[in-house]
Amino acid sequence: MEFSFSRLLLFCLQALWALAAAADVPAARGRPAGCATRCGDVDVPYPFGLEPRCAINDGFWLNCTTPVGHATPTLQYINVEVTKISVEDGKAWLKTWMSRQCYNQSTNQVFQNNAWIGFAGSPYVLSADDNMVIVLGCRSMAYMLSDAYIIGCMSTCHEDVPLRNGSCSGNAGCCQADLPRGVQYYQGFFNDFYNTSEIWRRTPCNYVTVMESAAFTFSTTYLTSTVFYDTEDGRTPVVMEWGIARQTCEQAKINKTTPYACVSNHSDCVDNDYAGYRCRERRKLHRIKERYFRQHGGLLLFEEMKSQQGVAFKIFSEEELQQATNKFDEQQVLGHGGHGTVYKGVLKSDTEIAVKRCMTIDEQQKKEFGKEMLILSQINHRNIVKLLGCCLEVEVPILVYEFIPNGTLFDLIHQNHSRYISLDTRLRIAYESAEALAYLHSCASPPILHGDVKSTNILLDGDYTAKVSDFGASILAPNDKSQFVTVVQGTCGYLDPEYMQTYQLTDKSDVYSFGVVLLELLTRKKAFNLEGPEHDRSLSMRFLYAMKENKLEDILDDQIKNSENTEYLEEIADLARRCLEMSGMNRPSMKEVADKLDRLRKIIKHPWAHENPEELDSLLGEPSTVTSTSTTGNFSIAKKAAMGLESGR
Ligand SMILES: *[C@@H]1O[C@H](CO)[C@@H](O)[C@H](O)[C@H]1NC(C)=O
Ligand SMILES: *[C@@H]1O[C@H](CO)[C@@H](O)[C@H](O)[C@H]1NC(C)=O
Ligand SMILES: *[C@@H]1O[C@H](CO)[C@@H](O)[C@H](O)[C@H]1NC(C)=O
Ligand SMILES: *[C@@H]1O[C@H](CO)[C@@H](O)[C@H](O)[C@H]1NC(C)=O
Ligand SMILES: *[C@@H]1O[C@H](CO)[C@@H](O)[C@H](O)[C@H]1NC(C)=O
Ligand SMILES: *[C@@H]1O[C@H](CO)[C@@H](O)[C@H](O)[C@H]1NC(C)=O
Ligand SMILES: *[C@@H]1O[C@H](CO)[C@@H](O)[C@H](O)[C@H]1NC(C)=O
Ligand SMILES: *[C@@H]1O[C@H](CO)[C@@H](O)[C@H](O)[C@H]1NC(C)=O
Ligand SMILES: *[C@@H]1O[C@H](CO)[C@@H](O)[C@H](O)[C@H]1NC(C)=O
């Protein structure tokens, strides 16, 4: 896997050369003869058409009509105006309705309209990269509701925070949140608790809309007047991605029912997971790849690698990864996460890999991506899954990790409860994971935060060696104060409560999540259980309650409960409790946690140390004050003190 820089450079030069030399021949268009190509000022390129026979299929049929009171015709899909179509990018610009919640002075009431868009069954999907959920208002909590998503934010105004044009920060009249991929319909909603009934003189309305980020610049007049709504009759521009059919290129090629669109010799088929496949011309495809490569900091990455010889990190091409994963086949999926989907793959060299396709990242993160990759590529720890490389020439970066064959800690714990897992094994997995996290926290400055510690992110090798995975996730974590995203329940139960208030991930957020993993190991219960009564759903709550009521035993896993273990289990439980402290400041560092787990392991593994306090002492590496206690024979006190698990230490 070693890649010397000179080879990397060669690869890079070849790739750029190939980009430059790519064919410059226009593709044969599939548009039938006699079809209009424009509507008003708007170009209508094939596969779109103004009559059913002119469009590749009904989804691409648009109407050109002149609305009442207008001079020029507009392009429309159903009732939605289309203002621009790009075949190269596979995008279309539409105008969709916003939702508002206003105070009506004459009726003395708050009214709202919850606008919705519905493109299910159409070729159009909201572009996650180009759009944002935008909320305006001085007392507003609003969100978009889709099938699987509730996404929104809270926008407020404060006397000491001046409203500024161009600034959308959450506490000055405007907030924004990222959109997930694949959304085809949504409706805007307002939390009724927040409204403008008391501030209507200054701010009559709140708004929520999903719109093109590039088309939005906050203006204070949006709050003080109704201009935001009135300018376009309550509409905002939105960018849609489109595909010919909701099939992959491969499926489309063999499907006899629907004609395959990319028949030209100079057009390639392009897959889009959410919108379906489409064609581009070949030359343009290369240009797009190059653009993504630049956007993701690819050139910077190469520059840096030049100065750091011998980095075992590879820049993969999209084609290579397509081949390795059988074109990202469903069958290859190892798991879905909040940040993307992981596929199993095999490289030409027979090396097994895990390939992670990320979900959307924002512009700033895109620019930093190459830099971050370089840092992550240098991480080398036996309990951390190795990052082998990345692919930057695609819309969202793809990460390539070493493949760990024996599943996740989650599977081990929860899949088969009759399977025996010794306390020693559990402690070792906990210790190794803690070590890995402590290493991440200390190996770079600023520290690398994991950001998504959970049992599904701890992988296991053949001999149950723990390998922490997905550590790159922290660079993808939202750190925007105004952004709250409820996407998957998966991470529920692990999330640091302090992060939910500050939106700031810290090393102590990892400690909290690790505390929950420790609980899973102790109890063999899931971190979050959707079934069952409300107060029983979160494992950490159940655990803290059990601790408080002195009923720890009720919640521990039977397999490890026995009279010999009781004391150790209490120690581990106490460590978990400290990890779960509400305030990050009161939690131990990952290093302290790892050290304590290590000491505990050694004591359990070497019971002979009971009889030999000096051995124990050197084992524990603790100050000599302990010796005097141990020589009294009251080992329980000595051990506790030695392990530094006494609360308050
Ligand atoms: C175009 O207009 C016709 C007649 O009003 C209507 O039946 C049809 O649904 C419209 N098609 C689209 C794609 O908007
Ligand atoms: C306020 O309510 C009145 C009475 O229902 C209605 O006529 C008027 O259009 C409303 N104003 C706004 C701005 O919606
Ligand atoms: C923001 O810009 C608008 C004009 O677009 C102007 O009327 C308004 O006063 C500006 N607000 C501030 C705080 O400068
Ligand atoms: C508006 O908010 C106030 C609290 O600020 C609440 O008492 C009132 O019921 C709300 N009105 C509506 C129509 O939701
Ligand atoms: C072919 O395409 C049609 C229409 O999209 C779809 O209903 C059908 O399932 C596809 N058949 C195969 C074999 O993929
Ligand atoms: C594509 O290329 C093949 C052979 O190179 C040729 O036979 C065919 O006519 C070409 N098709 C088009 C649409 O140009
Ligand atoms: C669960 O584990 C037990 C003990 O190792 C084994 O006998 C049993 O076959 C396993 N069950 C399944 C469904 O894997
Ligand atoms: C780990 O996976 C390998 C390959 O899939 C398998 O042969 C081995 O039995 C597994 N080991 C354990 C402990 O599950
Ligand atoms: C150990 O110390 C505790 C607390 O001082 C005491 O209650 C207990 O009896 C002692 N046990 C032994 C075996 O000395």
UniProtKB/TrEMBL annotation:
Keywords: ATP-binding, Disulfide bond, Glycoprotein, Kinase, Nucleotide-binding, Receptor, Signal, Transferase. One of its GO terms (biological process) is cell surface receptor signaling pathway. InterPro entries: Kinase-like_dom_sf, Prot_kinase_dom, Protein_kinase_ATP_BS, Ser/Thr_kinase_AS, WAK-like, WAK_GUB. Residues 328-609 form the Protein kinase domain. It comes from the Eukaryota. GO terms for cellular component: plasma membrane. It holds the Pfam family GUB_WAK_bind. One of its GO terms (molecular function) is polysaccharide binding. Its main location: membrane. ATP binds at K356. It is a single-pass type I membrane protein. CDD domains: STKc_IRAK. This is Wall-associated receptor kinase 3. It is found in: Membrane. Gene3D superfamilies: Phosphorylase Kinase, domain 1, Transferase(Phosphotransferase) domain 1. Residues 1-22 form the signal peptide.
